[in-house]
Amino acid sequence: MRLLTSFFFALLLCSYAQAQVTSKDSLWIHQGSFAANFSNVSLHNWAAGGQNSLSLGTVVSLSSSRESETTLWNNKLDFAYGLIRQGESAFRTRKTDDQLILASDYGYKINDRWSVLAGTQVRTQMDVGYEYFKEGTSDEEQRRKISAFMAPGYVMVNLTAQYKYKNLLSLAVSPVSNRITFVLDDDLAAAGAFGVTPGEKSRYELGVTLRKTLEFKVMENTTFKSDLNMFSSYKTLDKWVVNWGTLLMMKVNKYITTNFGTQLIYDPDVDVPKDDGTTGKGVQFKHVLNLGLALTY
Questions:
Q1: Residue 176 and residue 178: Cα distance in Å, rounded?
Q2: What distances in angstroms separate CA 103 from CA 85, 227, 245, one per listed residue?
Q3: 45 dihedral zone (left: phi>0; alpha: psi -120 to 50; beta)
Q4: What is the mean pLDDT of each run of 10 residues along the chain (297 residues)?
Q5: Whole-angstrom Cα distance, residue 212 to residue 234?
Q6: Structural domain containing residue 218
Q7: Pairing of β 129-133 and β 53-67
Q8: Cα dist. 197→153, 181, 193 in Å?
Q9: Best CA proximity match to 119, nearest among 163, 85, 155, 146
Q10: Tell me, what's the pLDDT at 281?
């Protein structure tokens, strides 16, 4: 875990904001963006009320691609992590954002717009996640572990037909899609979290994946990205797992950037904690706004 954390911190230091690097002698194109934000609120004898808080967040998006007349190879890393320390509760430091996506696809071009690809994708988070709650009439806050590194972790292995229009839009269908759900945390595996059989640490499904990726410049220094993934097992084609993320990135000047991201998840095999205190099937949604430092080289 420490090795992985050190690796991704190294990536943060080496990443670059809104840059594109290529050379005359290479078919490789490297792109990336990095944003970090920090905020602090300190109150003393403040009549209007409020809480002291300290927060830190990072968003990294890196890609590396190689395209020749007949082949293409795309690699991607998306990483986001955020923490907040607030108030005087028993659990002052809490995670606000945590996502890690690694993807690689290699294939052959049929023509300028159609390709056949074989690829893999890994989705997980780096840190432990908790649900915070109070029981009965007690004012004492408690917490329950609901996620960890590779719990869940999703590994997809796909054979894909892809349609791509310039660098704006790509549509893909994977009729042979292998989805493996990992729950490597012992406590969560014993509870049968994320659809695995209680006591087991993985679940294998064969199905179909649909994907839509859209990326374009809204205006100068402003880019919008949307990535929609849908998966259904051949055993239950009436149930779909949906994961839809968007990211709006704005470069204010040479040193300052801001970005606004959303993520919507629905998994019919996963029970989620709801606002009314119950647990059951439901749509997960989050949004994250970051304003901070941009690094370029």
A1: 7
A2: 32, 13, 15
A3: left
A4: 42 42 66 78 66 83 90 93 84 91 96 95 94 81 92 96 93 96 96 93 96 92 93 95 91 79 90 74 85 59
A5: 20
A6: 2-42+51-135+142-293
A7: unpaired
A8: 15, 11, 8
A9: 155
A10: 84
CA 245 to CA 161: how far, in whole Å?
22
Residue 247 CA: distances (Å) to CA of 124, 154, 212, 272: 18, 21, 14, 24
Question: What CATH number corresponds to the domain at position 17?
Answer: 2.40.230
| pLDDT computed for residue 294 by the predictor | 60
Number of folded domains that form the chain? 1
How does 143-155 read in b/e, with b if 16+ C-beta sit within 10 Å? Answer: eeebbbbbbbbbb
**Number of helices and strands (H, E) in the chain?**
2, 17
Name residues whose C-beta falls within 8 Å of residue 223's C-beta, 6 or more positions apart in sequence. Answer: 18, 215, 216, 217, 248, 249
Burial code (b: 16+ CB inside 10 Å, e: under 16) for 217-243 equals eeeeeebebbbbbebbbeeeeeebbbb
Amino acid present at 184: L
Ranges of H-type helices in the chain: 2-14, 186-190
Q: Contact at 8 Å (CB) between 237 and 266?
A: no
CB 135 within 8 A of CB 115: no
The two structure tokens encoding residue 164? 């791509």
Question: d(Cα 254, Cα 265) in Å, to the nearest integer?
Answer: 34
Which pLDDT score is estimated for 15? 40
Please report, for residues 51, 67, 112, 213, the alpha-carbon distance to residue 165 in angstroms, rounded to integers and kept in the order given: 49, 15, 9, 11
Tokens of 130: 């908790």
